[in-house]
Here is the input.
Amino acid sequence: MAQLRDAIIIGSGPAGYTAAIYLGRAGHSPLVIAGALTPGGQLINTTEVENFPGFPDGVLGPDLMDNMKRQAERFGAEFLQDDVATVEQQDSLFTVTTNQGQTFEAKTVIIATGSSYRKLGIPGEAEFSGRGVSYCATCDGFFFRGKPIVVVGGGDSAFEEAGFLSRFGSSVTIIHRRDEFRASKIMVDRAKGNEKINFLTNAVVDEIHGDDQGVQSLSVRDVNTGAVRQVEANGVFVAIGHTPATAFVDGLVSRDEAGYITVDGASTRTNVPGVFAAGDCVDSVYRQAISAAGMGCRAALDAQAYLANLTD
Here is the structure.
């Protein structure tokens, strides 16, 4: 029979690691099932993080995640590098099974599996990720001060990114595959009124080009004529949406139409007592390391309150 634990945290990154720190300090010795390939979440693939409080000179994403993990280990958290296949509820307990076939039982579960950026899947995207290709304007916009920038997408998030990036870039070009945008009218009107923002519609990016210095240009194809033109750019921000990593809890907790786990108000409580969720698998708006960490703290405190009620 699997050892019964107070808490299992599924996922890592700022939300999972912060929850582990808080639960560890409270004496609950959580098990963190951190993921098979990229424990630490999206920040493992991020170079310098300049907007996480406490690091006036910035910090490398992998270093920040390693520090959080070691801090959680200091307080008794245990880590397993694997993915979760299923979470099943049996009375008031939860059975968590990993892809490698290990099974664990817990009184509470915190889901902190995050989300992944939807990618273009074109040549040059992976090669120049972190060297001109980005998926987060607030994270990386500063690095393109005075340089030409492209934003790929047509929804509100793309227009928000374009507006933010116009503070830094010499120009911002929004590239969208149609001539109509999914973004709200007010967002579109605001962008059209910004003299730094240009538009390339009915167009798709076929390839990203660059050199040792990073991205230099894009091959952009007109979807109507097939004509290909070269567009100068040093920054390429892909804003075509996110996919929350929540498929494994389908049928256990409630999710919205996009797959994000729904929680009760400002809490981290799901519709299933004893199951909590935090970070980018819940948050479709802010998606920042610091907001995920704060939500991980709240999940741990919510879980502690739940555990306390079990023993009252």
The radius of gyration is 21 Å. The chain has six helices and 19 strands. Helices lie at 13-25, 61-74, 137-140, 156-165, 185-192, 289-311.
